[in-house]
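seq as requested:
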Amino acid sequence: MPKFNTYLEYARQISKIITNRMNVVGKKYKLSSLETNVLLFFSVKNHSATASEFSKTTLYSKSNVSKALDKLSKNNLITLELREDDRRCQEVKLTQQGVEIAKEIRKSINPIIEKLSDGITDEDRRIMFPILHTIRKNIDTVMTEIQKDCLK
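struct tokens:
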């Protein structure tokens, strides 16, 4: 049975492959890796979300996310709107141009995701996704603990 570190290395490799492909599209529009991630994240949300939700989900720092959002807003790729239920929060929404770039990013990575899924059966996926969900919850727990330690 492979060690857990082996799985971590596989995850790093997958992330690197996908990020490199996303960056090819990003460079075309003079976008950073973070900015391409922002566009992709908000394009798959069925509703608008906040910068804090993005930061928590992706583990990017809030300050870096804020800078990326400012640039994307200045370039008319997103809009930032105050939430009616909580005026302290801004909802991030893609503009039509942002949607088009996000589609291009998605189109560039879909073939990679399909190739990485070759040979994985439906039964394998049925087992794998709950495990990945558990790992994700564990990541959230660890990140919360780290943030608490940083505030001490």
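The CA atoms of residues 135 and 152 lie 26 Å apart.
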